[in-house]
Hints:
Layout: E1 17-21, H1 26-37, E2 41-46, H2 54-63, E3 68-71, H3 77-85, E4 91-96, H4 103-108, H5 110-127, E5 135-141, H6 165-182, E6 188-194, E7 196-198, H7 217-225, E8 232-235, E9 247-248, E10 250-252, H8 253-268, E11 276-281, E12 287-288, H9 289-300, E13 306-309, H10 324-330, H11 338-352
Parallel strand pairs: 1-2, 1-4, 2-3, 4-5, 5-6, 6-11, 7-10, 8-13
Antiparallel strand pairs: 9-12
Amino acid sequence: MVQENYHNMDSNKNRGRIVVTGGTGFIGSHTVVELQQSGYDVVIVDNLSNSNADVVDNIAKITGIRPSFEQVDCLDKEFMESRVFSKYSGIKAIIHFAASKAVGESVQKPLLYYRNNIVSLVNILELMPKYNVNGIVFSSSCTVYGQPDILPVTEDAPIKKAESPYGNTKQINEEIIQDTIKSGSPINAIILRYFNPIGAHPTALIGEMPNGVPMNLIPYLTQTAIGIRKELSVFGDDYDTPDGSCIRDYINVVDLAKAHVVSIERILEDKQLESVEEFNIGTGVGVSVLQLINAFERSTGVKLPYKIVGRRAGDIEKVWANPLKANTVLGWKAETSLEDTLKSAWDWQLKLNNK
Ligand code: WQD
């Protein structure tokens, strides 16, 4: 049994032990940093299927505290029980990031996505009450809204039929959490619906590490800027938007990580009004692809070669958050400018290429 890791000699500064599944991933690693810097003792659980263990070393370089790390697949319930729940005493809550998250891949491999994303959550929800772990923060996505009828989108907007198996797993998982708690489970949950997470830690020690050719915009953009890719394809400029390109709400990954810390605090300090609360985590500002390219060039001084091509199947036209509920109830607000966020993404790309 691993006792509380009292890295702060003054133990009342240790605010408790938090398990972070997917903690070596993009958003997970940034959240581990913020948790540690807020005084929490962190156990990372990750199967390293889409990340690597060096991230644990780099987190330790940033915070001076090495988080515990267990290479565990959340699909393996018995192994997760022995290596996490029964091994670490006093787990206060879980932040569940671990999931497959590539929209396009989910269309090609739906069963992999349904098994991985849904069974993992079910395993965790079944184990939590057995070890008196009654708090979970769940990583969801604005994808659950599809193309909202009203913008900016609020948490009570209708959940539309998902455009991909990936988006469907997020909707199904939110329902699984709701139904579990309605059934009388002692679990309390906060569901965070992310908009588009981008950027990297200001130290450039952690950031987004896509496998192979990036599907999402920012890694492809910075790889183009540094010369790995020839030019960025802008998927369509014939949408019903001011400049014709799609609009999204790009949220700085460190700001997003901080939303998880305040959510943990809310659960542990028993401040929740409902046993399940949902929050949109976005800036509230819609930015088009072409506007984002201009902001990147302004903030880095790097010219970006791009061309306009046809629309990408499955893309929605425009979405951005109404973040008022998170601002007022969670006391969280996005703080980092788009330009500073894009600069952090560029600095990270330079570091990845040892420039
Ligand atoms: C953003 C915009 C593209 C690439 C997805 C998931 C969402 C979340 C974030 C996990 C769109 C355009 C992109 C390119 C482009 N993932 N684009 N050229 O699709 O908004 O959201 O990732 O939680 O759940 O759905 O993100 O970065 O792929 O696209 O023009 O090479 O950039 O058309 O308008 P998306 P994205």
